[in-house]
């Protein structure tokens, strides 16, 4: 196991752009901070890479996410739009970044190719919610044309003149009556500046225009038409959309291509936003790989500690707390997604996040799907291990099928392999294994007990952006086969309540892969060895019981 390098402590550093916004509540004068945030050169490089993809005479708008209310007058801890962070490093709400393909001229004939509208400095609000960067802070991060968000209408140019207007609006935005610079108002102004038709449905069109990124769906005309017919039957917005009607009526692949060309030509284009951000974010740069290795290793060590700590009388919440303590101890700011700690049959619920069982129970396993988020980048690791340190024969048989499925995928984890190949490799092993145990009658029924996909992209989002076609060097994906046999299943009762998922994070290379999560034991013999070791929690539990 590699030694984990923790952030240098007690060093006075110049505040980075990201730190200024993430740690706004800390006094700016003296306190030490991490020094390994992404650099402003990284973010500038990402904007340049995006600009190369943009069509001639186009503009792309990237909006901040809205603030979400937690309870009454308390909001959730703000989580920035990963796209805005990726292209700017900015992590505050109430903002929009405009990136232009071509250089523009301002009123003083100065050239620019991006405009950034950010939330303004406000001493009264900052006393309550922390320091804000403001215009000068954002300029220090490498932006020349920065304005307050409330001036978007006044300083943004006429955006209707561009041939392509590329954007994605945040979901579920609401008008805050005491604010004139929130996301609702920024979107409203953007629609006016672009002369967007009032009946333009960005969510439906964004879905439709992203079709090119799903090769399997496009390859089957019957499947394509049935999919959108079902959406139209359930949702009035899809039913009324003329493009949906055309998709439902296509007869062959030639008509599909014609329709795609029609979509590409549209001026208001959320599909290009989705396509470009997926194309860029699915390939990790060297700077991103440093942070990904860090967040995955933190998560793997946390899983290892939970294995040491487990006892039959522990609760799901206790083990969740062990892992999340390790995250914080090693510098991770958040979890990448709600933590899953499912004991026994609770593990059969794929996204079980209640974690309220007060004891795991003897001869039971716990499925822990928990990943850290470090400087915006998320890990995603799952381990399943026994409460008393030893797998029962039935648990081990199911567990070993899942391990074999993972190993089958690892053999093909390299550039050129398709996600379809990965899915087939894992599903074939699970199907054969369950038939051999008499749990299934036919291998084709594997979805009965393996209902989810085997892999997804990983990065700034736990289900990160990417195009699900063929693997390319420097993609990071999960490999996560699983078997879940709920109570009452159509098989021998001895299998009921067994749930196993093993999930690892993998870096794709030209002709091989790199296992990023190797610090978390996988195989049954290694798991049993680690569960026999002592944890720091053992002494803590003894102290609390005195």
Which key terms come to mind for this protein?
three-stranded antiparallel sheet; manganese ion binding; alpha+beta; disordered N terminus; EC 3.4.11.9; globular; manganese; Creatine Amidinohydrolase, Chain A, domain 1; Creatin/AminoP/Spt16_N; Creatine Amidinohydrolase; five-stranded mixed sheet; Aminopep_P_N; about 550 residues
Kindly describe this structure:
Its cofactor is Mn(2+). A hairpin with a 2-residue loop joins strand 11 (372-374) and strand 12. Strands 6-5-4-1-7 form a five-stranded mixed β-sheet, with helices on both faces. Strands 8-11-12 form a three-stranded antiparallel β-sheet. Strands 9-10-13 form a three-stranded antiparallel β-sheet. The protein folds into three domains: 17-196, 3-Layer(aba) Sandwich (Creatine Amidinohydrolase, Chain A, domain 1), CATH 3.40.350.10; 203-267, no CATH class; 282-545, Creatine Amidinohydrolase, CATH 3.90.230.10. It is globular and about 75 Å long. By secondary structure, the chain is an alpha+beta fold. 39% of the residues lie in helices and 14% in strands. Helix 2 crosses helix 3 (82-88), helix 15 packs across helix 16 (316-329) and helix 17 (393-410) packs antiparallel against helix 18 (419-436). The protein contains 20 helices and 18 strands. The chain has helices at residues 17-22, 40-53, 82-88, 123-129, 134-139, 152-155, 183-194, 202-208, 215-219, 221-234, 236-240, 242-249, 253-264, 270-281, 286-309, 316-329, 393-410, 419-436, 524-531, 536-545; strands at residues 58-63, 69-71, 74-75, 96-105, 111-118, 146-148, 164-168, 334-335, 340-343, 365-369, 372-374, 377-378, 382-386, 476-479, 482-485, 498-501, 504-508, 513-515.
